[in-house]
Specification:
- There is one protein chain.
- By secondary structure, the chain is of the alpha+beta class.
- It has one domain: Mth169, Chain: A, CATH 3.30.1280.10.
- The protein is built from two helices and three strands.
- A three-stranded antiparallel sheet has the order 2-1-3, with helices on one face.
- It is elongated, with a radius of gyration of 16 Å.
Amino acid sequence: MKVRVLITLKNGVLDPQGKAIEGALHGMGFDGASGVRQGKLIELDVTDASSAADAEEKARAMCDKLLANPVMESYTVEVLDAA
């Protein structure tokens, strides 16, 4: 099963990279851009999943153990389709 994981910084956690992107956008004339936050997108195949729910559960375990820092980051998991 193909899975997409979106990892973002939790609200209240400073995002210097997001601020840098926002500043660059303003410098390019995109003055309407504000509140820029950056994150990570990870797509992977969970080949040993027996169902979409199993793939989601395994991806969440991967996030909890390695992919996301639970102190600073939140994540969402989306099962896209059968691989």
